[in-house]
Structures are given as structure tokens and as C-alpha cells.
Amino acid sequence: MSDMSAAGPELMPHGYTHRTTRTGDVITKAYQGPAAEARCAREAAALTALAGLVPVPRIIARGPVSLLTELVPGRHGQDLIDAGLAEPVLAACGRVLRQIHRLALPEALGAAQPGAVIVHGDFGPNNMLLDAAAQRVTAVMDWEWAHAGDPVEDLAWCEFIIRLHHPAEVARLAAFYAVYGNRPAWVQRHEAIMRRCAEMRQMCERWEPGGASARAWAERIEIAGAWRE
Fold first, then answer.
1. 79-97 pLDDT, tens per residue?
2. Claim to verify: residue 19 and residue 57 sit in the same structural domain
3. Which of 55, 118, 174, 218 is most deeply buried (CB count within 10 A of its CB)?
4. Helices 86-101 and 173-180: crossing angle, nearest 10°?
């Protein structure tokens, strides 16, 4: 075991509805907020079903609201965008999402309607680890929102992440859609963005009525509502 384990768990960045720590080569994800147990179960089911099919962390153990996975090497997608690699990061996102959406739907993710695919539910560079050159995805993380649904949900949410956190790179979304192979109409993408933002605000209101997270999502709804293609 590395010296890190002796020093105690290291809090990992980028967590939102969970607290994620690292101890040596083990990642511990502790789910927080409404439906934490259900989200833990959903992520465990997704990781189990997708193991060997797409790059996902390997489960070591799980509890009612916690999941232990093996550490995956790689750099966070948003960090690579900040380092000037937005286009290859987004191309890699398009490549792996196309792969995910072409897989057979696991029963654990719910009943499938015609045209439904495996929807990650929080897809984007925010939940991606890649090699240093941003050519290869080493892990797609955070599957707690996975379900059977419309592909536009993941496509739109990746665009939301870029528009909100990396507005100077919006033009690079062309690489994402080109590699994925489809760019739905703006009205479909925008509606999907607004719908998901509303769901996140509602979840935060249940978690802490009137709290900072709910207010933040209200602001994001206002910002996203003004976007134009």
C-alpha cells in the first residue's frame, strides 16, 4: 500500500452528489442526497453490466450507499480541456458515447421503449478520464443516473457541460457530434438540457429546500434558457 493510505483518504475533486475519496489504489464513492441507496444500486448495476464492453472502473465492493472501485489511471476531461485539448477530448467523448449507445440494453437499467439506448445520465468530459494526449478514454465514470432513454439526453448534456463551464470551446462541439455521427436539431437538444436542469433543481430542493445548490440550478436554468445555437 502506498504512503497515501497511511496519511488517510484523499478527497477527490469534481464530486457533486457524492463524496469520493482515494486510498492507495481504491476509490470510495459515498452517495449523498435523495435516493442515495437507489443511485448506488443503479451505478453498481451499470458498472457490472458494462464491464469489458466500455472502459469503466472495476467494482471491488459495495455497501448500501457506498461503492469501492479500482483506481483507473488517466486525466480528467475538463482538466485536459483547460490545458488546450478541447477538440481531442470532445472527439474522444463522441467516440465512446457512440460505442455506449450501440450496446444492448441491460435489463437492470429499466424497460426499453422503441429507440431507447443506454443513457449515462451525466455524460460529458466532467465524467471522463483520458490519456495525457486525450486520444483514448480510460474510464467513463459516475453511472448513478444511468437508465434506458433517448440518445439526445447524453448528447445534450455533454453540450451543456461545455456551454456552461467552457464557453470559449463551444465551436469544438462540432468534433463531438461529427465523431458520434449525429447532431440532433437544436430544439431537441435545448429541450433536453432544460428538462435535465429542472430535474436537478428539483432534486436539490428535496435535498435542501432553498439551499445553495437549488439556487445554483435556478441560475443555470436562466442561463441555459437564453442559449441559442
1. 999 999 999 999 999 999 9
2. yes
3. 118
4. 30
